[in-house]
Every structure is written in C-alpha cells, then in structure tokens.
Design a protein that fits this description.
A hairpin with a 2-residue loop joins strand 10 and strand 11. About 65% of the residues lie in helices and about 5% in strands. Helix 2 crosses helix 3, helix 18 packs across helix 19 and helix 33 crosses helix 34. The strands form four sheets. It has a five-stranded parallel beta sheet. The protein has a five-stranded parallel beta sheet with strand order 7-8-12-6-13, with helices on both faces. The protein has 54 helices and 18 strands. It has about 1450 residues and is mostly helical. The protein is elongated. It starts with 9 loop residues before the first helix and ends in a 10-residue tail after the last helix.
Length: about 1450
C-alpha cells in the first residue's frame, strides 16, 4: 500500500514523482521522461488531490503540449485508478461516444471502483458530447443511455451493495445507488484549450464545467522550468565544457521566449496566429540533439574522407622523394655491374674453350674404356653361364640345409651306433669339413651350433684337388644318393644333397678357372682404363664446374643488371603514376585542404549553428521572411554574447547542399531564399509538415518530388481516406493530404503524433481500433490553400507549419520564365536545358569526388602498386575535368542567357507587384480569392494578345502597360464597385513604392497620420488644431519641409483653398509644386473627406483615366476567357440577380434549350451533381443558384470540380454558379473559377454607361417606330433609374429605407414605355407616372415618404418637357437628354460627364455630400489599413 506522508519540500516530492514515473513506465511499457519542475509538481499535486476527493472532477485549461494529459495519466496511476479515453475514428459520433460513456459508467457503478475518464477538446467531434458530460457532472447520469440488458446488469451487480447497506431492494433504490456510485467513483478530467471562441462558448452553454469541476489553469512555462527541462535533456549530451552546456540551455530558453514575443508581434502586425507551446520547446531540444549528432557525424566523416585523400597524396609525395633518391643511388651501381659483366664474359669464353677441348679427349677415353668393358663382359658372361649349370643344385642343397633344424640334427646325433647310410653321409661331410672321420667326431661337429652355418658358408670355390679326389669315393657310391639316404634319415638326405652339390660345383669351377684368369686380366685392364678415364673426367668436371661457376657469376651479374634496370623502370613507372596521381589531383588537393579547414571551422561552430537550425525548424516555419531574418539575427547575437561558437552569417539554407537545392528547383520549387528555407525545414522537420500554400506551389513541388515513389493524393472528404492511409503506411508510400481547412479529422491524430510502438519486433501504429504495420519510409504531407489559416495549438504541436506563400522575388522569377518563353522561346528552352545540365553535372562531380575519395580510402599500403586504381583515378579526374569544362561553358552560357533574360525582368516585376495586390485584396472579401495559376494565365494571355514590336524597349513598354491594364480589367470583373477604385489605388501605390516614388515614411503617414498631439503652438484661427498638428507632421516628409511656414505666410490663400467645397480641383496655394502623391497626402491631412476624389486624381495621373472607371460588364469577354473546367461564379450583392442576364446570354449563344438550372437549398446537392455529370458529356450549361444557401454541399462541389480535372469534358460544357459572399464557399473553387460581379457601378456616370450597355443594346435602342420620343424617354428613364440607385449612398438622407432596385425594374419600365408609344398616338403621362412610379419602382418602396420622393423624381424626368429641345436635368446644364441619334452618340455624351456628381443632381443640399464623402473616405482608409501590416511601413 502507498504510504501517505508529509513532504518536507519540493525536492522530496520530485524524488517520489520520479519513482512513480519509473513504475508507470515499467507497468505500461512506456518511455515517458517527464521533468518535474516546480509548476509541474504543483499541477500534478492538484490533480492527485482532486482525484482522491469524492466526486472530484477537474478542468485542465492550457494550450496543447503543456503536459495536461501526461500529468493526468501519471496521477491516475498514482491513485491506482484505471484511465479511460475514447478512441476517435472517422465517423465517430454521438452513438459511439455514448457506447464508450456507457462502458465507463457501468464500470464505475457496477464494479464500484474509482476510475478516471479523460476527454480533450480535440476529441469533441460534436457539442452533444459535452452535453452528456454536463449531465454526468450535474446529476451523475445521461437520460435514456442504458438499455434493457444494461439495466439487468445494474440490478444484478448493485442489488447486493444495496442489501449490504440495509436499504430496500427496489428498482428505484438500486438505480439511485448506481447513480451515487457513478458520481463517487467516476472522476472526469476535461482537457481544454482557452484559444478561440469554443472555450468561452462551452463554459456558457454547459455551466457544470465550472460549477462541478476544479479548474486548473496551465500558464506558459516560466524560464526556470524551461531551463530545467533543457538541462535535464542536455545532461546526456557531450559538450566541450560545462559553460557551453549552460549557454546552450540559456539560449534554448531565449529562443523560446523570443518566439513567443515575435508571435504576438506577428499577430499585431499581420493578423496571423502562431503559438509556442511546451511541445515546441521539447521539439527544439530533441531536434537539436538529433541534428548535433547527425551533423557532427557528417562533418567528422567528411573531414575523415578529405583528410584521408590528403594523407594519401602526402604519402605518395614522400614515396616520390624516396624513389628519386633511390634512382640516383642505383645509376652508378648499374654502370659498374655492366663493366663487371663484360670482364667476366671474357674469362668465361676462354675457360669454356679449354673445357670443350678436355671434353673431346675425355670422350675418346670413354670410348676406349667402353671397348675393354665389353670384352671383359663377354668373358664374365661365359664364366657365369657355366657356373649357372651347377648353381641350381647348390642352391637346392642350401635350401635343404635351411629346412633342417636342431631337432633333425639331434635325431641324427641320437644314434649310439649310426646306421650305415648315416655313417656314410657324415663321413663325406667330415671330409669336406676337413675333420677326422669317426662317429664321435661327427657327433662333436654336429653338436656345434654353427654346424649348419659352416655348411652354408662353405668355401666352394677353393676345394683342394686332393680333397676333391677323395670325395669321389662317396660320389661314386651307388648307395650315396639322396633317395637311398632318405630312407634312413631325412636329415642325412639334406646333407647328401649338400655334399653332391659341392662336388658338382667344384668340378664346374675347375673348368671355369682359365676363363676366370682371363677375366681377371681383362678386369685389371678395365680398372686401369677406368682409373685413367676417371682422372680425365675429374679434370673435365673441375673445368666444367669452373665454367659453370663463371657462368653462374656471369648470369647473376647479367640478372643483377636486368634487375637494376627493371627496378629503375618500375621506379620510373611508379614515378609516372605518382606524377599522374599528384598532378591529376592537385586541384582537388587545394579544394580538399580548403574543405578540411572550412569543415574544421564548421565543426567548431556546430554547437551554435545546430541550435539555430533546430530553432528555425521548430519555430520559424509559419513566419514571413522579415520575421525569420530578425529572429535569426537576434539568436546569433545572443550566441555571441554568451560566448558560444556560431557562424555570424548563419542561414537556414546553409544546411542543404547546393546540388540538392538545384534538384528542388528542377522539381518546381522557387529558388528564392524563403522557398529554399521552406524546403530545408520540410526536409529536416521531425514532425509532419502542414504547408500554408495558397498559390499551390508547395503542393506541386511535393507531387513532383515524390511522383517516382508512388505518391497518393487524398482529401479530407474522401470516403476511403483511412483505408488509403493504412495501405500507404504498410508499404511506405508517401501521402499528400491537400486542401485542408483549419481543423483536421481527429482520426488522423495517431498519424500526426507519430504514435508508433514496437510489438513482437514489429513497428505498429494504432488507427481507430486496429493496429497497422508501420513502414519507416512512409511520409505524410499536408497542404492548405487558406491564405491565413488560424490553427489551434493542438494542431500546431503535432505538425510543423510552413508558410509557402509565394514571395515577390519567387513570383518574379516565375513570371520572367513566362515572359521569356513567349518573347524569346529559344532562350528559355536553352536555359531549361542548361539548368538540368548544370544540376546533373554538379551531381556527377559530387559523385566523382566521392568515388575518388572512396578509391583513395580503399587503396592498400602502397597505392602506386595498384595500376588499375591509378588509371581509374585518372579516368575519373579526366571525366571530372571534362564535366568541369562543360559546366564552365554551361554556366557562362547560362550567364549570357540570364543577361538577355534580365532585359525582360521589369515586365515580370510589374506582374509580381500586381499579384501581391491581388493576393492582398482577398483580405477584403472571402470571394476575392485568385489563384496564382489563374493570374499567370491572365498574364500569359495578355502577353500573347499584345501587339508585337521588334523594338525590344517599345515591346517591353507595351507589355507593362497591357499587363497593368488587363490585370485591372480582369480582376475588377469579380470585384464589387466599392473596391474597384481601391484596387487601382493599391496597384498604383505598390508600383510607386517599388520605384521609391512613395517612401515608407510617406506611406505610413497616409495610413496612420502624424499621431502628434497639440503642443500649444500658435496656428491660424480658421484652421482646426488637429489639422494644424497634421500639417506639422507633414514637415517630416520630403516636399513638405516648410508647409507650416507657407501656410502662415500665405494665410489668406490657404484659407480660401481650405474652405472651398472642392479644393481638390484648385491649385495648391503658396506656389507649392506637389506631385499627385504629395497632393493626396496634403488633402488627406487637411481635408480627409476629399480622399476618394484625390485618390482618383492620383490613379489617373500615374496609371491613366481608364483605371478610375469601372470596366463595363462584359459577359461575352468573360465567357471567351473561360474553359470547361473553369466555373463562372456570379458574386451577388443585395438585390442583384444575374439570372435575366444569363438567360439572355444563353439565348445569344444558342444554349437556350441546352441549359439546366437549379436553385440550391436543402437536399439539392445530389440533383446538382447529376446535372453536372450529365452536362459534361452532352455539352450543356449548368446554372446553380444561391450556393450560399447550400453550405453543407460546398465540399461536395469542390470534390466534383477536382474530379472534373481528371475527366474528358465536352468543349461546350460550362458550370455557372451564383452566390452571396460566404466564408463557406470553398477557396479552391474560387481560385479555379472566374468571378463576375453584377451590381450598379459606383457613380452616376458609370451607372449610366453600365446600365445602357447591359439593358439597352442596339436592338432595343432602335426598336421603336417613334425613335425621337422613344430615345428621349429611354435616356430619361435610364437617368432616373441610375439616380435612385446612386441616391442610396447618402444613407437616410437619400432613402429612409435602402431599396434594391435592379435592371429587371428598368427592363419592365422600358417595355411599358414601348407599349405606350406603339399603342397610343399621344403619350398617356398619368398612366406612365402611375405604372412606373407606383407599380414598377414604387412596388419595392415601403416608406410613404420614399414613395412620394420616387414619384416626384420620376415626374421630373419623364414629363412632356423632356421631349423638347434644350431640356436640362440640372441647372448647370451638365445633365440633359441628348438629341436622338445612334447609340454611339449616347456613349460619347456619357464620356463628357464628370466622374463625381454634385448633390444637386439628386435634389439634395451640398452638405449632404460631406457626410457621404466622410463615410466613404473613412471606409476606404480602413479597408486599406486592414490590408497593411500593423507595425508600420515595410519595404516596397
């Protein structure tokens, strides 16, 4: 059991918590490594105390990654409570949640065991989840949750507990006790983030979250906590010194705190949210440890490779020096050896001659001796032939003797008186042995142990003659035969055989004796000859030995010379190889030495550089370029202040090899600094990357980079998204999740968090309720087209967010490619080839250098012995030189091409500036989204359609003008009237700021004013104090240095100018020459209500009059620019309905019977999808109205359009959409489509021109039999129509209620007029007044005073006098019905009208205009400010 005791202090608690964490890790097979700093101890203690309290529930409030869930898990373990959490899968809803909740309640109530139920806000897929939790906190139960089988379990389990308490066992009592047990045992822990509106809304809607829960607020980690965490992790890392370790810890804290501060500034200036969480800090530390280890190993390996190559070259150089010395030593030795060999050859030839003569003599002696030998051999052979006759008998006798043994002899000796035959035999033996005869002598002789040996060794060749004669007595005795003797004694038989054999041999030997004598003489002669021959041969042998010795000496001398020559030759070959090696790698040696030096410096600065890199990867992804540079510069300074080694000019792209960056460029990544940094972050981030990619560049780059790996592209609304992910995770295929919103499906959390675990030797990840094999090669990319998404901290801690928004420089380079491709196609083709060639060449050079270093490293002790290696190195070097030469040519050519291309950069720059404005106005209205692809298409179309000119300068000038104009016209097509002039103004400002015509301080003054407060200084009485202070602020700007003095000196003139109703049309007093921009600044300071007028003048001055007028509504041009894949989107304003225009246009294009129309609403989405699928095949038009009313189907529409891109569409197919401005409208659809607005243009002049263009075509203008009256009345009605619409801008002064009159009212009125003219001889004016004033236009009016005003205005313009010559609508004669004529005359007249009309036209006092002007000026300025960074002017 756990012992509860008081802790003396925080350190003691920390020790206990560490032990608890170790036990938790062992128990759950985890590797958690929590750092228990003071705040963590306090939070954990609070959770533990709450869990031990009856009905203790806790609400943990803090940003994601602050340790709320980890501490809860540990607290539950320490309290010995089981922890329950829901596993959110795709489609997880209230039914699944209630099943999980039911299980928790049953375990708490039926088992009567304390448990913890933890729910975090990312798992709350529906707000009804919290409603159930609220019920549990409040009452302990959820209505209608338990089914019959659940009730049976409750009854059986809880009844025993009720009985033990002595309560009645009724159903109500048991259920009440079950609820009581649930409330006592179930401890709910809610983990929520305070970011956003959800937290506040939920607390208001579900009061039990506050009333029934203990709230524990997790603040940002303090500095000491951050430092203790860093110290804990860095204790395992080896640093050069303890001071470096402390500096690293301190810098980690500094980086984290600085990012928190920069995030606040980031939001204040750009309205972009970024959050720093403890998880980000842990990611910084983990990334640093990993990168320090990887880069340290990489640098060491590179240094080892380069140093190994240098060592080999140095070793080879030493060998060269030694070989040169050896060659010097061997040369005289070789010459002396040659002399000695020549002298030795003379002696050798002389001795060889003597030896040859001796050999001839010796051969003669050999022949003579051979003759003697042959003669002796003949004699010897004859003797031997005769002896061979006796020898067989002798050998038989000897064999018989050998057969005798001691027993046989003893048998003979045993005779006391031998038999006669025995006596006879032994007497013969004794005779031959020269012994006396007698039996006793015979017995004595036989008793001798050497008896038989004497017989065997008997000297048969020297038997005396007398003895031989005596022996004849026995030989001639008939009884002395072996056969007879054998009858008496076997032993004597053998003796008999021996005696007879000796006798026979003796007789033969006597016959051979003369021959033997002759043989002896011959052999003596032979011996003498042999002796003489031996002497001769000995002399010859000595001579030959001498010759051989000389020959050997000579051969050795010759061989020695050859060896010396060979050795010298080998040495020379080795010298040649060494020269080839050293000379060939001389340039590499210099580069390697430089590389080793730079790597050494890099290694020394690795500690600081990697910390900056880790900080950049962990934190800088969401920031723009300016913030990244500022933060990196600050971190570098902090490193230097702390004495930490670091590169002063450290940049994030320095981590990536140039070859890799070029490959990225080939795959579609813009090669500006920000994009390269983004690529570096993406390639090194430990978390999956979520890329903010409104222009789709990152999306395309990721697709190109991973196409060969089988990349799968998915979207959140795909039905089989989880199945696709599972398959890709199993086999390691990369996945791109594109076009996400601000929230991701909770079922993706395990993938985003990389919740990979090992089981049974397999890597697994749990998706939903199943474990999936995890291939480490799997990669996950996420992109969004939202330009400024607000991602909650819970998502930011799981992903690395990277801002891939196109930069001006990157876009400029892309547009330059488009310009040059059209203007100088051959240059761009050559440039593309050279880029690939240079990239491939550099890759090959890198590979060859690696090969050379590898070969040098793998060579043996003596590299010069390996000819194959030397040749391979030489060939590699040769290839390297060839590639280098090709690269030099390619880079020189590329430079020349770049110089030629740079001439067109000004065109690309203009396009880039304009697109930055187009992208920014998306902040005014969600429907203004324009994709980069759509703009590039407009850009390229403009280049193609602009008239060509051989004069490049004139061509460029015309291109710039055309691109500026078409960008205005094309984008204005989808803008509301109130924003068209604003768009033109922003275009002009961006262009002028780039040219430095508008300085940053001047622009900042325009946006925010001077900010000066009254300092008490005197000023003209007629000039308000705030205006005077603004004038004083102007003195800080160029051109206004003496503005206050000028006002004081020319006070009367300035007073007249200031108090004039239209000072914008008057010259500036005091002879001040101001540029249009400075005039705008002056009017903004002194008469801000005139801002719009001066803006118009400024735009006209810098861009031209056409930019101050709304482009006419031209549906034909919009249609001509469209494609089947491009939806045409009517963006509606209040009261506008383009259906009539669409129907008319369809009639003109022949699609009156080939169109399908549907007004969207509930359950209309599937019908619309069927229409689209039918029309893409048949080539019909589909017109879907009111998309804003079908927000739930908009993701489906997005998916349909994405699928259309993969299908073959009929060339006539078009999709028309209408929608009010709505944030639910999908951004990809807006970016892919062509947006069209149809509302009355702003200003009476523009309204008249637009209305006549849209409602009164030539056919209508000439369509009456009474042209004089008809044309006069048509213009009068159009004038009235425009007037009542424009009157709305005066607010309540114009109409008490704003009414939405549109062109359908005018069309109806024209039909009535035509009817009255055609059917009546005289015009029935009362009927005209009633029908038009009360029915057509008055039908929309709800206020009686407004109705009276409508009728009065109508009667003023449609009355008999309007048909007369010289009729005027205003006293100054500016507005009047033109004389009837062709329609072109009307447009010519409209062109003469002023851009701004006076209130008199509307029947209002001049002061009415001031209110309108102030309101419009304030609204315009607010809109401009809303698009600007909040921190001040940036660079142009």
């Amino acid at each position: 059991p756990t012992i509860y005791k008081e802790a003396a202090g925080i350190p003691q608690i920390q020790e206990a918590l560490v032990e608890a964490m170790m036990a938790y890790n062992v128990n759950f097979n985890k590797e958690d490594d929590l750092v228990f700093f003071d705040d963590a101890v306090l939070h954990l203690s609070r959770i533990c105390r709450v869990l031990r309290q009856p009905r203790g529930n806790v609400l943990l409030v803090g940003v994601g990654g602050s340790g709320r869930q980890s501490l809860t898990r540990l607290a539950a373990f320490m309290a010995d409570m089981k922890l329950y959490m829901i596993a959110v899968t795709r489609g997880y809803g209230i039914v699944e949640f209630r099943e999980d909740l039911k299980k928790v309640l049953l375990d708490a109530g039926c088992l009567d065991k304390p448990l913890v139920f933890m729910l975090n806000d990312t798992q709350i897929a529906q707000e009804t989840f919290l409603e159930d939790v609220n019920n549990i906190l409040n009452t302990g139960e959820v209505p209608n949750l338990m089914q019959n089988e659940d009730m049976e379990r409750i009854m059986s389990s809880v009844s025993l507990k009720v009985k033990a308490l002595g309560k009645p066992e009724t159903r109500e009592t048991i259920l009440a006790h079950f609820v009581y047990l649930c409330r006592e045992n179930m401890h709910t822990v809610l983990v929520m983030s305070p970011i956003g509106d959800n937290f506040r809304t939920r607390l208001r809607m579900f009061p039990s979250l506050v009333n029934c829960m203990t709230i524990d607020w997790y603040n940002l980690w303090p500095k000491d906590a951050l430092k203790s965490v860093a110290k804990r992790f860095f204790d395992k890392v080896v640093f050069d010194s303890e001071s470096i370790r402390q500096s690293v810890c301190n810098l980690c804290v500094t980086i984290h705190m600085s990012v928190q501060q920069s995030s606040d500034e980031f939001y204040a200036e750009l309205q972009r949210r970024n959050y720093t969480t403890p998880t980000s800090y842990l990611e910084l530390i983990s990334s640093y440890i990993q990168m320090l280890d990887e880069q340290g190993g990489s640098v060491n390996l590179q240094m080892k490779r380069f140093q190994g190559g240098l060592n080999k070259l140095a070793e080879t150089q030493r060998m060269v020096d030694d070989m040169k010395k050896e060659l010097s030593r061997m040369q005289p030795v070789l010459e002396q050896a040659a002399k000695d060999t020549a002298a030795m050859m003379v002696v050798l030839e002389k001795d060889q001659k003597i030896a040859a003569e001796a050999k001839v003599v010796c051969l003669k002696e050999e022949k003579e001796t051979q003759v003697i030998m042959e003669e002796a051999k003949v004699i010897k052979d004859a003797c031997q032939q005769e002896l061979d006759i006796a020898m067989p008998a002798f050998y038989a006798a000897v064999d018989a003797l050998d057969a005798l043994n001691k027993k046989d002899i003893d048998e003979v000796k045993s005779f006391a008186k031998p038999p006669e035959k025995v006596q006879l035999t032994l007497e013969a033996v004794l005779l031959l042995l020269k012994e006396k005869s007698g039996w006793d002598v015979a017995k004595r002789v036989m008793s001798d142990s050497a008896f038989l040996t004497r017989l065997r060794n008997y000297d048969k060749d020297n038997i005396p003659e007398g003895l031989s004669k005596k022996l004849q007595k026995w030989i001639n005795d008939e009884n002395f035969t072996p056969e007879i003797i054998a009858a008496t004694s076997t032993a004597c038989k053998s003796l008999c055989l021996w005696v007879r054999a000796i006798d026979k041999y003796s007789k033969v030997a006597k016959g051979v004796a003369p021959k033997k004598a002759k043989l002896a003489v011959a052999e003596e002669k032979l011996e003498a000859a042999k002796k003489k021959l031996a002497e001769k041969q000995a002399d010859l042998a000595a001579m030959e030995a001498k010759v051989q010795k000389l020959q050997r000496s000579y051969d050795e001398s010759v061989q020695k010379g050859k060896n010396l020559e060979a050795e010298m030759k080998i040495t020379q070959v080795r010298l040649e190889r060494a020269g080839k090696l050293i000379g060939g790698l001389s340039s590499e040696k210099v580069r390697w030495e430089s590389s080793v030096t730079s790597l050494g410096a890099k290694k020394e600065n690795l500690v600081g550089n990697m910390l900056l890199a880790a900080g950049a990867i962990a934190y800088l992804g969401p920031f723009t370029s300016k913030y990244r540079k500022n933060m990196l510069a600050d971190w570098v300074k902090q490193c230097q202040d702390m004495g930490m080694p670091v590169d002063v000019d450290f940049t994030l792209d320095s981590l990536t090899e140039p070859v890799t960056i070029r490959q990225w460029g080939i795959k579609g990544l813009p090669l500006d600094n920000v994009s390269i940094e983004n690529g570096s972050i993406q390639s090194r981030a430990r978390r999956w990357c979520l890329m903010i990619d409104p222009q789709g560049q990152a999306n395309q780059w990721i697709k190109n980079m991973n196409r060969d790996k089988g990349l799968k592209v998915i979207k959140l609304n795909d039905a089989n998204i989880l199945r696709t992910l599972e398959n890709c995770i199993r086999v390691g295929i990369p996945v791109l999740l594109e076009n996400v919103g601000e929230q991701l499906d909770p079922s993706l959390d395990p993938i985003l968090s990389k919740q990979v675990f090992k089981s049974g030797g397999r890597l697994l990840i749990r998706l939903g309720d199943s474990d999936v094999d995890y291939d480490p090669n799997f990669k996950f990319f996420i992109t969004t087209k939202l330009p400024n998404p607000h991602y909650m901290p819970e998502l930011q801690i799981r992903t690395t967010i990277i801002n891939f928004t196109v930069t001006p420089k990157g876009l400029e380079d892309q547009l330059l490619v488009d310009v040059v491709r059209f203007e100088r196609a051959e240059l761009e083709v050559q440039k593309d080839k050279l880029v690939v060639q240079i990239a491939e060449g550099q890759s090959q050079l890198k590979a060859l250098e690696d090969k050379i270093l590898s070969l040098l490293a793998s060579s043996g002790d003596d590299i010069l012995e390996d000819e194959v290696l030397i040749n391979t190195l030489a060939q590699s070097k040769k290839t390297s030189e060839e590639i280098n030469k090709d690269l030099e040519v390619a880079e020189r050519t590329s430079k020349e091409i770049d110089e030629a291309r740079e001439g067109y950069r000004i065109v690309a720059t203009r396009g880039s500036l304009i697109y930055s404005v187009i992208a920014s106005i998306g902040g005014l209205q969600h429907m203004y989204q324009v994709s980069l692809q759509a703009y590039k298409k407009l850009f390229n179309q403009t280049i193609e359609r602009t008239e060509r000119n051989n004069d490049v300068a004139k061509r460029i000038e015309s291109l710039i003008a055309a691109i500026t104009l078409q960008s205005y016209i094309g984008i204005c097509r989808g803008l509301f009237e109130s924003h068209k002039l604003l768009y033109a103004f922003l275009m002009a400002v961006e262009i002028l700021r780039h040219k430095q015509t508008i300085r940053d301080n001047s622009w900042d003054f325009f946006l925010r004013g001077s900010g000066l407060k009254h300092d008490g200084s005197a000023h003209p009485a007629w000039l308000p104090t705030p205006v005077w202070m603004e004038c004083k602020g102007l003195t800080n700007l160029e051109g206004f240095e003496k503005i206050c003095d000028n006002i004081t000196a020319n006070e009367a003139k300035w007073k007249v100018w200031y108090q004039d109703d239209n000072p914008q049309f008057l010259p500036i007093p005091g002879d001040m020459e101001l540029s249009p921009w400075n005039k705008l600044i002056l009017l903004k300071a002194m008469r801000p209500e005139k801002l719009l007028f001066v803006i118009q003048q400024m735009v006209m001055a810098y861009l031209g009059q056409v930019f101050t007028e709304s482009p006419p509504f031209d549906l034909h041009a919009a249609y001509d620019d469209s494609e089947p894949i491009m939806p045409l989107i009517f963006v509606l304003s209040s009261g506008s309905d383009p259906t009539v225009i669409f129907l008319t246009f369809a009639q003109e294009k022949g699609f009156a019977e080939k169109k399908m129309m549907l007004s969207l609403g509930q359950d209309q989405g599937p019908k619309a999808e069927v229409m689209i699928n039918t029309a893409i095949k048949s080539g019909e038009w589909v017109y879907l109205q009111n998309c804003h009313l079908c927000a739930s189907w908009m993701p489906g529409l997005e998916k349909i359009l994405e699928e259309l891109a993969l299908k073959e569409l009929h060339a006539d197919f078009r999709l028309w959409l209408t929608s009010m401005p709505s944030d639910s409208f999908p951004v990809p659809v807006l970016q892919a489509g062509m947006k069209i607005t149809k509302e009355p243009p702003k200003g009476l002049k523009a309204n008249l021109r637009d209305t006549i263009t849209g409602v009164v075509p030539e056919k209508v203008w000439e369509g009456c039999s009474r042209p004089h009256e008809w044309k006069k009345l048509v213009f009068s009605l159009v004038f009235f129509h425009a007037l009542i619409q424009e009157r709305r801008k005066f607010g309540p002064l114009g109409w008490n209620v704003p009414y939405e009159w549109n062109n359908s009212d005018l069309s109806a009125g024209l039909k009535y007029l035509q009817t009255y003219l055609e059917d009546f001889e005289s015009i029935p004016w009362p009927a005209v007044s009633y029908i038009l004033g009360i029915i057509v236009y008055g039908g929309r009016v709800t206020d009686f005073l407004d109705l009276r005003c409508v009728q009065s205005m109508l009667n003023k313009y449609l009355e008999p006098g309007s048909l007369e010559e010289g009729c005027q609508f205003t006293s100054d004669g500016t507005y009047y019905p033109p004389n009837p004529g062709p329609l072109s005359d009307i447009f010519e007249y409209l062109g003469t009208l002023p851009a701004h009309e006076s209130p008199e036209v509307f029947g209002l006092h001049a002061n009415a205009d001031i209110t309108v002007q102030q309101s419009e000026a304030r609204g315009t300025l607010d809109s401009i400010i809303s698009l600007q960074p909040r921190g001040g002017g940036g660079g142009g």
